Amino acid sequence: FCNDCFKKSFRCPMGFPAKMLRKLATNWHSITCHFARTLPCLVVTICREMNLCNIDSERERLETLNREVLKILGNDWGLGIKRLEGYGDDHKVIHYKLFSRIPERLGFVSVEAETGSLMRDLEEGFNSSVESGFGKLLTVEYTASNILRIGDAFNRAISDQDEKFFSPTDLVYFPLHEELEKVHASDTEDLIALVANTEIRQKDLIGSVQKSTKAFGNFWAKMASVTFSPSLASASVLSFCSIIAEISSGRCCLSPIFTTIP
Length: 262
Prior knowledge:
By secondary structure, the protein is mainly α. Helix content is 65%, strand content 2%.
């Protein structure tokens, strides 16, 4: 997914026209909504295997994995995190609702086909097996950790009148996730050995990561394309390309058991 636009990065530090970020905001919002609403499927998948298990050590393995999924799920739904100034402890702190402030300000647009493909990949993995589901979870958490790097682009977005477009309240999603996503990614990776404790499980996990990495690579390549159309490819937009270049490359190396996807 190499792009000449990425190679011309680190140029003019001007603000970005906010309207350029409309499709990126809408499509990432769709991903955040879908993740929060389908991750419970992985909890069901794990519990289903626990109900079929009659070996104590295996049941304990599954219980450990389920606790991690439930922690991430709870955080995504606004539970167990620090209170945000100006917010109560209700549905308004659900993470996809925090991010929704951005596309609401910009205006929602249609969702791209690559976004739909990625959403289907996640849901299929969460419903398939414990190993496949964790492969999706690993990939999502590392991508979510990296997407925080684009927060500066939204922070620097300007209106047609050259005024700052977003307020700190609009962008609260980004500072909230700075530490949270790093913890999620690290904690999930720490469980790799427990998830893939047999050769068959390891193969399932790796295959799941490879498939999701490809889906995310296609998604980010499309986002780069629709965000930086030829008519908008001026010097003021080039440094944003460098921010998502690594993500768009489709490469993923979360642990020594994973191979790098070319």
